[in-house]
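Predicting structure from sequence has reshaped protein science. With that in mind, we have picked out one protein's residues alongside their backbone shape tokens:
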Amino acid sequence: MYTYWHECSDPGPNHTDVHHLMAIATLLRESGIARAGDVARHLSLSRGEVEGHLSDLTDRGLVIRPQKKQYALSSEGVDVVNSVLAKRRILRGFFEDILKVPRDLAATDACKIEHLLSAETADRLVTFMGEYLSGTGQIDGFRRALEDYAGAARILRDKLSTDDSDRDSPSADGQPPSSLQP
């Protein structure tokens, strides 16, 4: 039986929840106040969408209402934000420093998965990164294999982009390109 499927549908904070929590944290840090309209502008969403979601986050104990029309993070909400920020730094470091992914793409990809990564996997990723970046132990073989793979992928990508594109186009008689014929 597939038990991991249930873990993937964990009712914990999802991507949208995290964005709302992060917006509140950012607004409180920058201006000291977070109202629904402020969160809506920060996320480029309608006020109605944000109010509904903030109500849900309040019901779930992640957000509190210290004053009418104002929002703040509960201690649990603060924990979620801090955990996600730590995982974001780990993932961005892994993507940029080890996989050599461009900074903007690393940030985008980290944002997509930061709220899904378990604390245990994040810890192991940090350990791996430390060993990889220090070049100690058996990691040297892995580093060489990763660099060889990246080099081969680059060569293949360059070759495919410089090949004559007409060669892979169907001929006038509708026959498949010569590169695809047996």
